[in-house]
Each structure stands twice: as structure tokens, then as C-alpha cells.
Specification:
Number of helices: 8
Structural class: alpha+beta
Bound molecules: (3R)-3-hydroxy-3-methyl-5-(phosphonooxy)pentanoic acid
InterPro entries: GHMP_kinase_C_sf (IPR036554), Mev_decarb (IPR005935), Mev_diP_decarb (IPR029765), MVD-like_N (IPR053859), Mvd1_C (IPR041431), Ribosomal_Su5_D2-typ_SF (IPR020568), Ribsml_uS5_D2-typ_fold_subgr (IPR014721)
Largest sheet: 8 strands, mixed
Enzyme class: lyase
Number of domains: 2
EC number: 4.1.1.33
CATH topology of the largest domain: Ribosomal Protein S5, domain 2
Distance between the termini: 17 Å
Strand content: 25-35%
Family: Belongs to the diphosphomevalonate decarboxylase family.
Helix content: 25-40%
Order of helices and strands: EEEEEEHEHHEEEHHHHEEHEE
CATH architecture of the largest domain: 2-Layer Sandwich
CATH class of the largest domain: Alpha Beta
Pfam families: MDD_C (PF18376), MVD-like_N (PF22700)
Radius of gyration: 19 Å
Length: 324
């Protein structure tokens, strides 16, 4: 058990979003969701259980962490210890290859890598479905980062039935996510808090649940048909529906800022010019542009023309969990 284990997990961006839990403790979502795992952004996490330790010790990007992130990590490791029947504390070393300002959630890759590394370090031999269920307990979106390419998180009803599975791990479609970074500030409302507030107060929440089920079926069909345009249209529509819940919550809130709307406008302008580009946004202001490789140059030029200071990252489909 005293052998350090290192796992790598990549981030994913949802094309059909997860926004709300029916069971907050077990992280069982109200809807199923579907994402694309990305090649550019990942987390490497090393875990070793050590009898000498009197508490879990976490370092993130070589900095010792003692805040709320450590509390969440210990709560997660308690699940692993319970499964493995041990009570030993662990040393966790996590390196995030997710630019912190990119507005890309690192919790998905973070908890997926932690689930894989800690379970193996504790002597457990979990298959990918069990890993997905475990990762889900850290952060819902992490359940999908166990798999590469397109993955669906089936909402399920309880801990046993709520997990992700691959839809297409080796992506055949020419698809990429262009992350446009215009605002590097930390989000003010965490996803955990934001989504439950939307459930509790948006009058459109039930409509969202129904519409998202329709979008999901269509999205899986678009992937099967290699139909990029339909995929893009559905993803943008689904993201805007999710953000509408926040605009219609009481009190209302939004992750959008002026830049978010400007980039949304720019994406619509590009489409008017015949360029296939679609937008998706998560719990932060930065926009991800879903596009194809032959449009990279013209999209980047349009962004740079309007926003010379924008940071742009281009990511392609990435792999599932691996051990290093
Ligand atoms: O898994 P969380 O708690 O970081 O929530 C993720 C929520 C969204 O990124 C907005 C949507 C999604 O499905 O990833």
C-alpha cells in the first residue's frame, strides 16, 4: 500500500450540461449530460497512503493547501478509505495543466485523477464504471473525465446507477474547442451553489429538465451521424438554456459578463459569414467556441481583431484516465 500511484485525467466540456442535483449528498443529477474530453488540459495526481501521517496532506501545483480544498479532498478520501477498509492518511500531490485563468473547470480532471490514483494507492482495483461513480462524489462533471472523447453521464437514481460511459472514445468528427480567455478572475458563485439555487427558484427548471432530455437524444444522434452543424447548434442552444435558468432565478445571477456577450455576438457574426462556430459557457464568463480545424485561423483572427488581449487555447478530443 505504501507505493505512490500517479494518474492523469483530462478536463471535459459539456455539450449537454449538468445543472442541478436531485441528491446533493450523493451528487445524483436531475438530468443526464454529455461532454467532450479535451487533450490540452489535464491534471496529474500522485497519492501515497503513509502510516506516519496524522492527517491528509495536499499540495496543488507545489503549494501546500490547508483551506476548504483540503477539507473536500479529505472527505473524498474518507470514501476511498471506507471502500478499502483502511484508516491511513495520504499525501496527495496534484499538478494542474489547466491554465487557471482559462475558465476551464479543473474540478473535473482533478477529482477524476484523484479517484483513479487514490483508489489504486489504497489497494482497490476499480473498473472504469466504479471509478466514474467514485469521481462523481468529488464533482459531478468528474464522472465524465474517466472516459475519452464523447462521454455521457447517465443521471440514474442512486449511487449505483449514476455514472458515465463512453459514447465514442476515438472521436471521428473534426471537432475542437477554442477557449477564449478575456477574464481571469475567480468565479463569484460556485457551480454547487449556483445550480441548487436555480433548481429552487427558477420557474423554468422543469422545462429545462424536459428540454435537456430531448437535446440529449438529438446530440447522440448528431454524434452517430458525424453531423457537426447539428452538434454545434444543439450545444449552443443547450448552454443558453442552462444560463437562462440563472437569469430567471430569484434572486437572479449570471456567470456572463460583457465579454461573454461580445464573444457570443462574434460567434453569431461568424455564422452569418458562413463559418461554422458555436458557443458554450460554463460556470464562468469565458466562452468556448466549438469549431472545426479549417476554421481556426479565421476565428482566431476575428477574435484578435476585436480583442487584441484575448488568450486563445485550441483543444481537440482527448483521452480518458491513465496511470503514469
Ligand atoms: O461538476 P461541477 O460541480 O463542477 O459542475 C459542472 C457544471 C457545468 O460545468 C456548468 C456543466 C457541466 O456539465 O460540466
Amino acid at each position: 500500500m505504501n507505493t505512490p500511484i500517479t494518474a492523469r485525467a483530462h478536463t471535459n466540456i459539456a455539450l449537454i450540461k449538468y445543472w442541478g442535483k436531485k441528491n446533493a449528498e450523493l451528487i445524483i443529477p436531475t438530468t443526464s449530460s454529455l461532454s467532450l474530453t479535451l487533450d490540452q488540459f489535464y491534471t496529474d495526481t500522485t497519492v501515497v497512503f503513509d502510516e506516519q501521517l496524522t492527517h491528509d496532506e495536499l499540495s496543488l501545483n507545489d503549494t501546500l493547501i490547508t483551506d476548504n480544498t483540503l477539507t473536500k479532498t479529505t472527505a473524498f478520501l474518507d470514501l476511498v478509505r471506507q471502500m478499502a477498509g483502511i484508516d491511513t492518511f495520504a499525501r496527495i500531490n496534484s499538478i494542474n495543466h489547466v491554465p487557471t485563468a482559462a475558465g476551464l473547470a479543473s474540478s473535473a480532471s482533478g477529482f477524476a485523477a484523484l479517484a483513479a490514483a487514490s483508489s489504486k494507492a489504497a489497494g482497490l482495483d476499480l473498473d472504469r464504471q466504479a471509478l466514474s461513480r467514485l469521481a462523481r462524489r468529488g464533482s459531478g462533471s468528474a464522472s465524465r473525465s474517466i472516459f475519452g472523447g464523447f462521454a455521457e453521464w447517465v443521471a440514474g437514481e442512486d449511487d449505483f446507477t449514476s455514472y458515465a460511459h463512453p459514447i465514442q472514445e476515438n472521436v471521428t468528427m473534426d471537432i475542437q474547442m477554442l477557449t477564449v480567455v478575456l477574464d481571469g478572475s475567480q468565479k463569484k458563485i460556485g457551480s454547487r451553489q449556483g445550480m441548487q439555487h436555480a433548481i429552487a427558484t427558477s420557474p423554468f427548471y422543469n422545462t429545462w429538465v424536459a428540454e435537456s432530455a430531448v437535446d440529449l437524444v438529438a446530440m447522440k444522434q448528431a454524434i452517430a451521424n458525424n453531423d457537426f452543424q447539428t452538434l454545434g447548434e444543439l450545444a449552443e442552444h443547450n448552454a443558453l438554456q442552462m444560463h437562462s435558468l440563472n437569469f430567471t432565478a430569484k434572486p437572479a445571477f449570471t456567470y456572463f459578463n460583457g465579454y461573454t456577450l461580445s464573444i457570443l455576438n462574434l460567434v453569431q457574426d461568424l455564422r452569418r459569414q458562413g463559418i461554422q462556430a458555436y458557443a458554450t459557457m460554463d460556470a464562468g464568463p469565458n466562452v468556448k467556441i466549438i469549431s472545426q480545424s479549417d476554421a481556426t485561423q479565421v476565428i482566431c483572427a476575428a477574435i484578435k481583431n476585436n480583442f487584441p488581449n484575448a488568450g486563445i487555447e485550441v483543444a481537440k478530443p482527448g483521452p480518458g484516465i491513465s496511470y503514469l
